[in-house]
Amino acid sequence: MQMNPYLSFNGRCEEAFNFYQQCLGGEIGPIFRYAGSPMSGEVPADWQEKIMHGSITIGEQVLMAADVAPERYEEPKGFSLSLQIKSTAEAERIFRELSSNGRVVVPLEKTFWAALFGVLVDPFGISWLINCEEPDQPLEA
Fold it and tell me: Is 14 helix (H, G, I), strand (E, B) or coil?
């Protein structure tokens, strides 16, 4: 069995995937649009090029998402996506990039369980936990 998060967007799924690809180095998978699908009549006429179903692979995980018809869309709440990052420099970069034009909920800082931990909401309303368990180790000569 495999579990994959599935996100709903209000018309900005493609923009979010491109943003995640840039910030997280993901690879965008197959994209299915409403146009030409049996669901084309379930969205407004100007939504035909919106994403009915798509995915992006980040590391070894697949994140799936779609643009939900405006009358059925609900803002995300009650969950977060959690990233476990090995490098503090990478954790700082990802936190900075994901939170740009978003909102910092908990600043990225050292905690009793992690070298760095922070919480943010990205520009698309998705909550992220950034966790870096160990400080960067010096390279051995």
Answer: helix
pLDDT tens string 109-136: 999 999 999 999 999 999 999 999 876 5
* Three-state SS at 120: strand
For all residues of the chain together, what is the average pLDDT?
93
Q: Is the pLDDT of residue 139 over 60?
A: no
6-67 sits in which CATH class?
alpha beta
Tokens of 79: 């969950």
- For 81-132, CATH gives 3.10.180.10
User: Rounded to whole angstroms, what are the CA distances from 141 to 26, 87, 133, 134, 135?
Assistant: 32, 19, 24, 20, 18
Phi-psi region of 25 (alpha: psi -120 to 50; beta: other; left: phi over 0): left
